[in-house]
Amino acid sequence: MTAIELRGVTKEFPGVTAVRDLDLTVEEGEVYGFLGPNGAGKSTTIDMVLDFVRPTEGTVTVLGRDATADSVEIRRRTGVLPDGFSVYNRLSGRKHVEFAIGSKEVDVAPEAVLERVGLLDDADRKAGDYSKGMRQRLALAMALVGEPDLLILDEPSSGLDPAGAKEMREIVRTEADRGATVFFSSHVLAQVEAVCDRVGILRAGELVAEDSVEGLRETVGGEETLEIAVGGADGDVEAALDAVRDLDGVTRVDRDGDTLVANCEPGAKTRIIGALEEAGVVVDDFRTREASLEDLFLAYTEGEAPDATTDTDGLAPTEADGSPEEVGR
Amino acid sequence: MSLVAVAEKDFHDTVRSRGMLILVALFSLLVAAFAYAVRPAGQGEQFATEVLLSFFVGPFLVTTLVPLVGVVVGYNAVSGERESGSLKLLLSLPHSRADVVFGKVAGRGAALALAVFVGFLLPAAVLIVAPVAFDAGAFLGYTVFAAVLGVVFVAIAVGCSAASRTQRRALIGGVGIYVLFVLLWGAITGQLLGAAEPLIDPLPASSAQVRAFLRVSNPTTGVETLTNAFLAEQLFAGDQVNRQISAASMLVFWTIAPPLAGLWKFDADDL
Q: If you measure CA to CA, which chain B residue comes closest to A69?
């Protein structure tokens, strides 16, 4: 059985299509990272899975049931950490967890759950006095109540400090080891890279890539990122950049102050340096960074809309067009 | 049961609400002040609890303030959670939207009923101390009717809240409810009745009967009708029994229909 299955799902809001003809399958037991810049349609997709909004077209099936007709039954077996939620300011953390326990009709000690997310000491404080990170932990605690078969975490690391984000990843791991399916959205790839079995990248309401983390790594494996420190010759830099862009094996070049960042095949490095020196740009220093998924992610999410959609096997990152839009649109 | 969990959560949330506490404290003080002010001067004078309640406290305080508390408690029930985002937390748990709406009616209604009982404690103390014939049974019964009135207004306001996309609209709706039922019911239904005269003529009911029915259809008048009958020991008896049954049926109607109508809208909405 699949945990989440979307077939041909489109969601239109007045004046905007948030999700377009989306097919998505999350297998039972896997940790699926759902990536994309803000505004790509991740939250709308999750909202449809939870029946907060209903698709304009297509079907959403969760844990083998229809997302709208059987929503209560689905949520009985699902733990959710929503995005953009707020707590009940007047109620204590313990009351929140007790409410989740009563709602799911399970018999567990609130203390055990609060302990797991590190909130036991603050359990009797009003949740309205909690920090953003503590609220996030509280919602996670509510999601974990009753050992759900499916965990849906929408931007789970927002508001958490690095240590908190690490704990969050550890909890995701533990839940996955227990056998739960984890569906987890983020706009920061680094957060999902470490825990996900499979990653889907959503952009402007469409799935532009979907593969295992290893698969994505292989795709970017042939590329390296070259950071070049250049001094002085400002006037010629733009012309030099164009020359570098025209070289074979160079995917993209960006300028960040006195540093140029180029994505290229390993063999293209000397050609790049050569082209720069030829154009009169002084290369003070350079170093190569290992290719990261982040670069691929940016290529997918910043470039022009891809014409070819989802293809799990033949991943072909779209050409970056050199004028990236803001990620946090 | 899911509805009970929502009701319990909302009960705890509402009894901690400062707005409701302030209103109930104000109500309690006013009723107590009334009881003190209209106490008989002379020692031998007969002055019964019933008289105080049905002639002074009832028309001036209960039918105006209790609906206000009800609207305040109910108007933000669903729309407030929707706007703040706590509705996402609530609906992440296995609750149907129907459980949310009716759980809120139950939880907030219970919180308001409790507040009304507590609010009547201070006046009760004043009445016990004051030289009036204090009838504990009548007083307690009256409190129950006041609580019923509050619950009906909570239900109407929660229904309105469920149908409102924003807090602003819910607030406008809440004010509208109060103005309609507490201030302008007679005028509005009178206008309607005048306009609908040709429609009523062929019906087997006289215009006066329709007018009487419309009067008791207002929950405040309905509760007033029932409490006066209760204080006169004529509840569901005597020559007013039909009117009382109409009043009681309309109270049930107002408790169920507005939340249902609100749910109908809320259930179809994208959140």
A: B96
Residues of chain B positioned with their CB less than 8 A from the CB of A96: 89
Element (H, E) at A183: strand A181-186
Taking an 8 Å cut-off on Cβ atoms, the answer to whether B8 and A102 are in contact is yes
ipTM higher than threshold 0.95: no
Nearest CA-CA partner of A218 in A313, A111, A320, A113 = A313
Which residues in chain B are closer than 8 Å to A83, comparing Cβ atoms? 88
| Residue A295 one-letter amino acid | D
Check if the beta carbon of residue B92 is closer than 8 Å to that of residue A47: no
**Cα dihedral A299/A304/A310/A312 (nearest 10):** -20
Q: What is the pLDDT of residues B139-175, one digit of tens each?
A: 888 899 999 999 999 999 999 999 999 999 999 999 9
Within 8 A of B13 by CB-CB distance, chain A residues are 88, 90-91
Predicted local confidence at residue A157, as pLDDT: 83
Can you give the pTM of this predicted structure?
A: 0.81
The separation between CA A182 and the C-alpha centre of its own chain, rounded to angstroms, equals 13
State whether residue A142 sits within 8 Å of chain B by CB. Answer: yes
Q: What is the crossing angle of helices B219-231 and B241-268, to 10°?
A: 150
- Give how far A114 is from chain B: nearest CA, Å: 17
Shortest Cα–Cα distance, B264 to chain A (Å): 15
Reported as a single tens digit per residue, the pLDDT across B46-90 is: 566 777 777 777 777 888 889 999 999 999 999 999 999 999 999
Residue A323 binned pLDDT confidence (cut-offs 50, 70, 90): very low
- Would you call B92 and A82 a contact, using CB atoms and an 8 Å cutoff? yes
